[in-house]
Design brief:
CATH superfamily of the largest domain: Rifampin ADP-ribosyltransferase domain
Order of helices and strands: HHHHHHHEEEHEEEEH
Strand content: 5-15%
Distance between the termini: 29 Å
Oligomer: single chain
Number of strands: 7
CATH architecture of the largest domain: Alpha-Beta Barrel
Amino acid sequence: MDFNPSNNVIKLCIQGMAMEEKNEPREAGQLFLQAWNEATNDFEKYLAAYFMARSKENVPDKLKWFETALQFALTVNNESTISALPNLYSNIAKCHEELGDSANAKKNFELANSFTANPTDKGPFYHGTKADLEVGDLLTAGGNSNYKADLVMNHIYFTALANGAGLAADLAKGDGPARVYVVKPTGDFENDPNVTDKKFPGNPTRSYRSPAPLKIVGELSDWLRQTPEELQKWREKLANVEGEIIN
């Protein structure tokens, strides 16, 4: 299952995070519990369990929910959940540390460190833009950010989720039509640090970046189109985002 912001369980988790930001932990916990109760597949249960863990102050309860999230993440075993394993093992280790269990703390910290290598995602990969390009062209770093004026980007960004690339294309600067290109990295790439372990554990949107060019190998014509109202909400949300872009 791919990460989808329209998924009701994910929506509930987002609403819970908004309550946390308003310093309303009780309301946040109720929303996370609702997400858990409404989860119908292992991916949804993994995410809901993660947020249930975050909402607990009691360390044994926190540990139980992080271990539940880990169990479902390992069952799903796709790129979205694999990227979350360092986060999950680290949180489990911290719980053991607080409980005075140094052996299990050490074991889980070691497991967390064992998953910190480069992404293993094989794609296919996509890049959304309004630029009119052709197969064989190279997309390179050095362009201006779509989200912060006058910021020259040191990396070129891409995703393994076609709908995510489509949204990026719709939000990109320019007057042309939104285009989603199928791309192939020509060098090493990493998880996008601007989204990884920020709101959700790991890199569920399978967003990556590279200092090396991306080669266009095709173009996608079919992806989930946002309504004008939905796009306006995204623009408003991005305009209100605080913090620096990790460049």
